[in-house]
Amino acid sequence: MSDKKYNVLIYPTAETDLYEIREYFETILRTSPVPLFKKFYAQIDILERTPYIYPVVKDAYLQQLGYRMVPIDNFLLFYIVKEDEVQIHRFLYGKRDYLNIIGS
To answer: Which domain holds residue 45?
Structure first.
């Protein structure tokens, strides 16, 4: 087993998504987003060591770009692996039209 560790970059769009998720949980749902965020960061830790564990998405256009998707509760984490880097692009609610959001 390889001890290789990939460098994880969280893109500004993903940071904005995390901020909006936190705001939604705190202001609309009036609950803590901490349990969900712990799951997000646990997955990031996994991606740091095994980024190819999740398949490329099925959409042909996003596939061409190399997007992979991780389901986390009702959310989807989208990322791309380039060389020794994991680029996290989005954290989206699973019922959103992610093809239009990411593909545009």
So the answer is: 7-103
